[in-house]
Design goal:
Length: 265
């Protein structure tokens, strides 16, 4: 045997789930998926305890087993009596990669699309929040008399979108919402849905625009072509990411309710 040839145990380890643990950790973080990931006692398999609300199956061994079978993922399922959660055990690198593709990649793609849209809106001085799903997202713009929506319309080539509207009245806000819906539909070439939540004592008007991920990409591309009023805003965002301000802090079950993250001991 060649002295440089790997032994049988080394070859097995190279193809084990544990050998790609970091890849799964990175995917869990990118997908914002709550789970705990541990190396099994045999040092080759990985145990994934699922907490995420994004999980496509119910928190039962039976439901998880059916989903794994349908997704052609070679894994076993057990019930953890301490956490009252299902635990997926992945034995091979191939099973890890299949899990990532089936469970996490759709969320990774959606979050990347949402982040790109949020970034370009921020570059234009627009504060926004986004509700993200694997097939669509909701863009929320909240401002007194929908000032952010008016700014968005200006960026899309309609600076006078609210010229004849009384935005301190609900009728004016509703009419503006419909105009914004038509404007974005025309700008990206396919219909979107828009609705407004009128202001109350403690909240500003909020416009919600629902669109598919592909529509969000088209809107991002259109806004990228628009002139940025304050180029320093984009520079500040890029510098903030470069120096690591707001860097990811590992999630621990019970410490950050509402967060959908992963951790690995």
């Amino acid at each position: 045997m060649n002295a440089n040839s790997p032994t049988a145990p080394e070859s097995a380890t190279a193809a084990s789930a544990a050998s790609v643990k970091q890849q799964l950790e990175d995917a869990l973080t990118a997908a914002d998926f709550v789970a705990t990931l541990e190396t099994a006692d045999d040092d080759t398999a990985l145990n994934l305890t699922v907490y995420s609300s994004k999980c496509p199956f119910d928190n039962t061994v039976e439901a998880a087993a059916v989903w794994l079978l349908d997704a052609s993922i070679d894994a076993t399922v057990a019930w953890d009596e301490e956490t009252f959660r299902v635990v997926l055990t992945l034995a091979t690198a191939a099973s890890v990669r299949t899990l990532i593709a089936a469970l996490l990649q759709p969320w990774m793609t959606a979050r990347t699309t949402a982040q790109q849209l949020e970034d370009i809106l921020s570059d234009h001085g627009l504060d926004s929040t986004l509700g993200v799903g694997t097939a669509s997202l909701n863009l929320h713009l909240a401002d007194d008399e929908l000032g952010s929506a008016v700014t968005l319309a200006r960026l899309l080539g309609a600076p006078d979108v609210a010229e004849d509207l009384q935005l301190h009245r609900r009728r004016g806000v509703r009419r503006l919402t419909k105009r914004i819906e038509w404007l974005i539909t025309g700008a990206i070439g396919s219909p979107v849905s828009a609705k407004v939540e009128p202001a109350c004592e403690h909240e500003a008007d909020r416009l919600t625009i629902e669109m598919s991920l592909e529509q969000a990409r088209r809107l991002t591309k259109r806004l990228t072509a628009a002139q940025v009023a304050d180029p320093s805003a984009r520079l500040q965002r890029l510098l903030t990411r470069t120096v690591g301000i707001g860097a990811y802090v590992a999630w621990k079950p019970g410490e950050a309710p509402g967060s959908d993250r992963s951790r690995s001991p």
